[in-house]
Amino acid sequence: MNYIGTRGFNEHRTFSGALLDGLAPDGGLYVPQTWPTPDFDLKSASAGGYGDLTVKLLNLFGVNVLGDHAVKAAAQRTEDAFLRNGEVPLTKLDDNLWLLELYHGPTHAFKDMAMQMMAPLTDAALAQRGKKLTLVTATSGDTGAAAVRAFAGSEHVKLVVFHPLGRVSPVQRLQMTTVQADNVLNVGVEGDFDDCQRIVKALLSEPVLKQQGLISSVNSINWGRLLGQVPYYLAAAAHSGADKPEFVVPTGNFGDAFAGWVARKIGGNVGHLHAAVNRNDALNQAINNGKYVRRQATETASVSMDVQAPSNFERLVYEASGRDADVTRTLFNDFAATGDVTLPADLQAALKAEVSASTVSEETTKATIKLAYEKYGQVICPHTAVALAAALERRSDAPQIVLSTAHPAKFPAFVTEALGFEPKAPDAITDLYGLTETLTEMPADVAAAVTTVRSFIEWID
């Protein structure tokens, strides 16, 4: 299994190379050179043990270049983060409507599944090469917390996390800043998530940093991150008993939704994919109106979705265009330069055939949290509410699985406002309050980021 880039890079990387690169050298995103056909019974594997399913999928996508031990260790950590009381965390809300709880890992967010998998795989890849790696990541809250928990204390990895200052929930901030590890640097950026993401992409191609060793990212631009999210689509569909259920995904950077696309592409029992976004709706506008426009992200209760330039949209464009690297490269170069592109009509139609999208308002988000409690007895987070609202708007006789991506206690203020009582928090969250925080603040400036990261690398070396 080799990997190529969405913008034409075709020198082929193994999984290990794609994992450690993060971005392809030309700025594109890695995808498999060809989509594999499972050499095992995918239906049976999806209905079986989650760890075994994950091992089979990792091997299918070439992760076995890192050795059987690394694959099994990654699968075990993923399984530990996913299951609820030893079972697939699927809750039936109504006829043909399920909630898939993806927040049973160490930071109580769905990012744990992929991040817990990435850590042992990254360590194995670095050990093979005798190298160390600087990882940089942008986060709107949950990615950073999951990365800090997964990589803290690693002997091979130095981790720098950029989050928009004052624009993550207090719990999300504490989950990052209270972890005291010499190999972790938390940075608050005076800007929004898109500023953080722009900084990370610039750092990945910064010559000064590359001179100091390998540098990569654990954002969902990294194929290894995205791959860790594929198994739960297959497991959830199998355990629902439904034929080709629709998945409704609360969407920020579009990585989770694209993981569902991958599950469907390899022949999984996955039906239509619907991306639910908040008022930061660049993705929805692109798919439904053909205009992809970068605007300043606005703050919402579903903070992890406050994204106006979703990176993984590039992978969808590449696939919908018939894997046309020229079309993909031109579109995203123009978008980077102008922030405003019009999609060709045939490309827009192809995108709509792959994924649909809709926007959910703050008012509807709050009302849906209340409805979920009163009608279904479920306390849900704002991100989950965005997806559930979109699912209920689309309701038909077709089976639907709504992804629930974070524990409601990570967003207590908004949930309390909606319900009139505070969601019960697990000990892992309540124990954060009162701990010492370590945080570096900086402007939304690439030069400042280079200086900050370089100083950290030099200090830790």
UniProtKB/TrEMBL annotation:
Q: Where is the Threonine synthase N-terminal domain?
A: 2-73
The protein's required cofactor(s) are namely: pyridoxal 5'-phosphate
Give residue ranges for domain Tryptophan synthase beta chain-like PALP. Answer: 92-319
Keywords (alphabetical) are: Amino-acid biosynthesis, Lyase, Pyridoxal phosphate, Threonine biosynthesis
Catalytic activity as recorded in UniProt: O-phospho-L-homoserine + H2O = L-threonine + phosphate
Protein EC: 4.2.3.1
Q: Which GO terms describe its molecular function?
A: threonine synthase activity
For this chain, the family text in UniProt reads: Belongs to the threonine synthase family.
Give the protein name, as stated in the record: Threonine synthase
Q: Which gene encodes it?
A: thrC
